[in-house]
TrEMBL record:
NCBIfam families: Por_Secre_tail (TIGR04183). Keywords: Signal. Pfam families: Por_Secre_tail (PF18962). Residues 1-19 form the signal peptide. It comes from the Bacteria. The lineage of its organism: Bacteria, Pseudomonadati, Bacteroidota, Saprospiria, Saprospirales. Gene3D superfamilies: 2.80.10.50. Residues 501-571 form the Secretion system C-terminal sorting domain. This is T9SS type A sorting domain-containing protein.
């Protein structure tokens, strides 16, 4: 084995790139677990998050302290941060013997927010964070919607249904400010079983499931009064997972279904039949709940959707996960198959036009795609989490990343055609069984915000800087901000670094020894394309497997803990 001793001095190179600039990361934590489930931005850039927590949590991510202590076994939280991530307010919902789950949150142009969640257990629950008491009673198995103004003051709470007691149910809620005689509306979707009354007033509007679990969608007025309720489902389990609306008040819902389902909630029928264990559906309803179109994505095994978004042209983006093979073209005439060799699930992203016709589909690597954001120029950002080793490049090139812990966080940006622009990974420094999850995304002025949970210590600056957050106990909450600028970048590095790199040339692997702690490594081909990226947690020695790379010359870039970057050519035989 031949060892090459390298001294790297002045390195200069130019490239024009879409550079992602890390702005900040904020942490919210306590001695127990805190889980964020959703995040939105208002017109002024303030962000609102909803989720649940145990024990005592400091909800001020800055130097001050704002503690809330769960009254019950698990309480719901709502918190507001300003555009710079500074604390504004936080509230909790819970009672002595309750379990609360905040599922989704939406905001209108005036900063009014509505959350949807569920509470199980006994005891009265006070939904008013002020001096007044507004108790919700007999909430066992019910879903509630609660509205607050931008200052966090209570407006109303409504509850409906009785068969929603499972904490793993998915619900989504959105405001629609499309003009109508009834003003702004609130849409809610989820799944239910049996017969339920969906009218929170003294009146009764019952829906009955056809099978085990069916899909529901409801429209409420701005005051929380039920306008209509619809259901869809077959004889097996069916669920909606995400929803959005357009400027005309049309509703777009995605989810998963088994067997044969009539997706027309009216008197007509539109049947879709799953081909695998479960298929993905996407439907469009008008503002009155009438079906406009229904589409499905089918595969050989199980396919699950997790998120949905619209761009300015009305195109629909669906993110999810699949195993085996999935046909992402909903038409019967053509196939557009994506395949994965992973034993676990792999992520997919599909784009349909405003009429539900196929545009493109990409195999995007991360298994849990929890959020999709579309920029004003049609670029697509996705975020979530992944395990094991995945390829984040949806094209013919390869950009693999390996999770440092049980689950790592990722954010990926694609151009308008679905080609990879960049991807970033965050992981706990301890590795092992630690779990880090991206749970929610939001966009404001083309800046991307990602929120989720982490354990241990994580450096949230994906570039050359350092921005560590350390959890106070179990799973803590993070929120980070990235912005995007297209610039001409010139790098100069004059500091020398002594490395042992061997063997070079190499048929398969290279081993790197450094005299400083390394933070990351990247490999570029001669066209300047990033083909490999790996996060390193302050190690001085690393091994890289290059066996899957074609023979040729590559540029190795190393980043150390002090923000210095170093480059060296390597040869793959």
């Amino acid at each position: 084995m031949r060892t090459i001793l390298l001294n790297i001095f002045l390195i200069t190179f130019h490239l024009t790139t879409s550079a992602q600039t890390f702005q900040w990361a904020k942490g919210i934590g306590g001695t127990w677990d805190q889980i964020v489930d959703d995040m939105v931005h208002d017109a002024a850039g303030n962000m609102y998050m909803v989720g649940h927590f145990y024990g005592t949590v400091d909800f001020d991510p800055g130097p001050n302290i704002y503690n809330l202590t769960a009254a019950g076994n698990m309480d719901i939280f709502i918190t507001k941060l300003d555009v710079n991530g500074n604390f504004v307010w936080a509230h909790q919902i819970g009672s002595t013997y309750s379990y609360g789950h905040g599922k989704s949150i939406t905001v209108n142009t005036y900063g009014d927010i509505v959350i949807i969640g569920e509470i199980s257990g006994s005891g009265a629950v006070d939904f008013d964070p002020g001096p007044n008491t507004v108790n919700g009673n007999n909430f066992e198995g019910d879903v509630f919607i609660a509205r607050y103004n931008s200052n966090g003051n209570f407006v109303f709470v409504k509850n409906f249904g009785e068969n929603f007691s499972s904490s793993n149910y998915e619900y989504d809620i959105v405001f629609s400010e499309a003009y109508s005689l009834l003003g702004a509306a609130i849409y809610v979707t989820g799944k239910f079983s049996g017969t339920d009354d969906f009218d929170p007033s003294a009146a009764t509007v019952n829906l009955s499931s056809n099978g085990n679990k069916d899909i529901f969608v409801c429209k409420f007025s701005y005051s929380g009064n039920l306008i209509w309720a619809k259901s869809m489902g077959g004889t097996q389990d069916d669920e909606s997972t995400a929803m959005t609306t357009d400027a005309s008040g049309n509703i777009y819902i995605t989810g998963n279904f088994h067997g044969t389902v009539d997706f027309d909630p009216g008197p007509s029928t539109t049947f879709l039949t799953s081909y695998g264990n479960s298929d993905v559906f996407v439907i469009k309803l008008d503002a009155s709940g009438n079906l406009v179109w229904a589409r499905q994505l089918s595969g050989t095994s199980s396919e699950r959707s997790k998120s949905i978004a619209l761009d300015n042209a009305g195109a629909v983006y669906i993110g999810g996960e699949f195993s085996g093979t999935i046909d992402c073209d909903p038409s019967n005439a053509t196939l557009h198959n994506l395949t994965t060799s992973l034993t676990s699930y792999n992520g997919f992203l599909t784009k349909l036009d405003a009429s539900g016709n196929f545009v493109w589909a990409k195999n995007v690597g991360g298994q849990e795609i929890e959020g999709i954001c579309i920029t004003s120029t049609g670029e697509v950002c996705i975020g979530g989490s992944f395990s094991n080793t995945v390829d984040f490049d949806p094209g013919p090139n390869v950009l693999t990343a390996t999770a440092n812990s049980w689950s790592d966080i990722f954010m990926t940006k694609l151009d308008a055609a679905g080609n990879l622009a960049w991807t970033r990974q965050w992981a706990s420094s301890g590795g092992g069984t630690g779990a880090d999850y991206g749970k929610a995304m939001s966009i404001y002025n083309n800046d991307i915000y990602l929120a989720g949970t982490f354990e241990g210590s994580v450096d949230f600056d994906p570039n050359q800087g350092v921005s560590y957050l350390a959890s106070a106990g179990g799973e803590d909450i993070f929120v980070l901000k990235m912005n995007e600028t297209t610039t001409s970048v010139e790098k100069h590095r004059t500091k020398s670094l002594t490395l042992n790199v061997f063997p070079n040339p190499t048929p398969n692997n290279i081993h790197i020894q450094a005299q400083t702690n390394l933070k990351g490594v990247e490999i570029y081909n001669l066209e300047g394309q990033l083909i490999r990226s790996k996060r390193i947690n302050n190690q001085t020695e690393i091994d890289l497997d290059l066996s899957d790379l074609p023979s040729g010359l590559y540029l190795l870039t190393l980043n150390d803990e002090k923000g210095q970057s170093y480059q060296q050519k390597i040869i793959k035989k």
